[in-house]
Request: fold
Amino acid sequence: MADDSIVQRVAELRRELHYHNHRYYVMDDPVISDFDYDMLLQELRTIEEEHPELVTPDSPTHRIGGDPAEGFVQVEHRHTMLSLGNAFDDESLEAWYRRVRNLLDDADFSMTCELKIDGLAVSLVYEDGVFVQGATRGNGFVGENVTQNLRTIRSIPLVLQGDPPPYLEVRGEVYMPVESFRRLNEERAERGEQLFANPRNSGAGTIRQLDPKVTASRNMQIWAYSLGDAGDVPGLPDHWEALEWLKSLGFRINPNNRLCYTVEEVKDYYREFVERRHGLPYEVDGVVVKVNPFNYQSSLGVVGREPRWAVAYKFPAERAVTRLLEIGINV
Ligand SMILES: NC(=O)c1cc2c(=O)c3cc(F)ccc3oc2nc1N
Reply:
């Protein structure tokens, strides 16, 4: 049995490694050299090999799980994962805005604008601050358990910082950075294998790999974009504060999110990113506009499978061939 000093050292190493992992993969601002990080990880691995009874599932040495899965177990979402209604032009955005204002008896309200990441929506469940389950959206009610694969994504925290509630669900979009997609297709072309059509497809295929080692080899990333349900965290007044709080817990929140007070500001944001979208290291297909105050979100409610309080203002479709040429794939 390991004596106390070993148990203490293991806890200290885990805390330090989770912290440096967060700095490197979530904040993109490491404060330790890769060499020193690897030395800490190796020290922990050595101790865990000598004392297997000390290994815990949230250990940073266990991001790449066990054997390939046979298939995916289905999981029921505690809170249904709804779908976004679409707007394709300013008129339909303004129609959405007017409808919401009417329903709110002409109240004023702020809106959050977020880039709509073109990836795969996932639900992450944390119990007592430890990552316990990751699932795809599926049909919104039932998704696939892809926990082992999501654990390999370094920007998904295995252990939360701050003071998380006993149960927390977070939603995010998992995606393959454009550069990783380009490199992956280059490797496939050299091996004479079939190419992936776009980062979204390769990302979705990677998350649904049966072997976590394959997922781990493809540099997948995440942007967290909301709580599973505002009711899970009483005391947060609106979505913007919820995003700030999630950032304080260690989640990777997109720095381009913006708080807007008028539909004009929303349109400015949209036009800004119609221009800037191809300079981003990840693919986006629009802007998600959300009524910010949670009390207004709950009074607006849901119609069918879509929340009344959010809309996806899509970017103009573009010719796929041009896009592939732009990211350096010679089709
Ligand atoms: N792809 C995305 O970047 C993204 C997606 C969604 C959703 O799908 C979504 C669906 C809802 F029913 C409600 C809010 C949402 O917020 C979202 N926010 C985002 N930033």
